[in-house]
Amino acid sequence: QVQVVESGGGLVQAGGSLRLSCTASGLTFDRYAMGWFRQAPGKEREGVSCISWSGPGTYTYYADSVKGRFTISRDNDKNTLYLQMNSLKPEDTAMYYCAARRGNYCPVSWPDGRAFGYWGQGTQVTVSS
């Protein structure tokens, strides 16, 4: 049974940093593309970042709203996905979700989340002004 579990959320002041982690079990991690998504109250879910992996290396993609501030990475030996979030803004406040997609690439449509079959329960990130 596939399980995806996020951790690392919390309350931080604007300009601060947080690192989210996501551990996946029950799947062959290096055969899955992984993504981070977020949803704020009253707003639609937003694709934050996606990372694929193949033998030569990883490929990463970001929403324009987080480029230059967030960094996605993965440790295939630990079945763990990370999201380093720097220079946080109040508008980054949301529930953050980790998701796994069978197939080690991020499709063009990755931001809508529909290509991802496994989702975690989410971890709350709150950025105070």
Characterize the structure shown:
This protein is mainly β and 129 residues long. The chain has no helices and eleven strands. The chain has strands at 3-7, 10-13, 18-25, 32-39, 46-54, 57-62, 70-75, 80-85, 94-102, 118-119, 123-128. The strands form two sheets. Strands 2, 4, 5, 6, 9, 10 and 11 form a seven-stranded mixed beta sheet that branches. Strands 1-3-8-7 form a four-stranded antiparallel beta sheet, with no helix packed on it. It is globular. The termini are far apart. The model has no long low-confidence stretch (mean pLDDT 96).
Structural features:
mainly beta, 7-stranded mixed beta sheet, 4-stranded antiparallel beta sheet, 0% helix
Please report which band the strand proportion falls in: under 5%, 5-15%, 15-25%, 25-35%, 35-45% or over 45%.
over 45%
Cα(first) to Cα(last) distance is 40 Å
Average pLDDT, to the nearest integer? 96
Largest sheet: 7 strands, mixed
User: For the CA atoms, what is the radius of gyration?
Assistant: 14 Å
What helical percentage do the residues reach?
Answer: under 10%
Q: What spatial form do the alpha-carbon principal axes imply?
A: globular
Order of helices and strands: EEEEEEEEEEE
Number of helices: 0
- Please count the beta strands (DSSP E, at least 2 residues each): 11
Low-confidence stretches: none
Q: What is the SS-derived class? A: mainly beta
Fold topology:
Blueprint (H helix, E strand, L loop, with lengths): L2 E5 L2 E4 L4 E8 L6 E8 L6 E9 L2 E6 L7 E6 L4 E6 L8 E9 L15 E2 L3 E6 L1
Parallel strand pairs: 2-11
Antiparallel strand pairs: 1-3, 3-8, 4-5, 4-9, 5-6, 7-8, 9-10, 9-11
